Amino acid sequence: MNTFFALALACTLSTAPNTDDKTLSRETATYVVTNKMAIWLTEAGKLKLSVGQHDGSAVIKLFDHKGTLYTNRVGLRKGIHQTFDLTQITEGTYHIEVTIGDEVVVKTIRVERHQSPVFRLG
Predict the structure, then answer these.
(1) Largest Cα–Cα distance of the chain, in whole Å?
(2) Were both Cys, which of 52, 102, 112, 122 would link to 118 (CB 3.0–4.6 Å)?
């Protein structure tokens, strides 16, 4: 399955409990916090994004060196909580870009497959 469709299927709002911790890397979660949002990577390869209530909207993009894999504009009147499942995408370097007003946050995500998958947010 190509990366675009795997990522599109994997990008869902978080509603299910996490049951796959035992099969993935035990790296410590990494956090990015600004005055408007928090981005963190779980040990199970889930990239989580939380944005509080604001006027206007946010633009969320996931991309790699080949181009945009996912983009979405979301209203922030009620805030958002979104989860991206990185366990189904191929090894490589990806980027998440979140724009809220004039604030732009871009973080690099490295997906590495060893005996157990390793996920890094830098």
Answers:
(1) 45
(2) 112
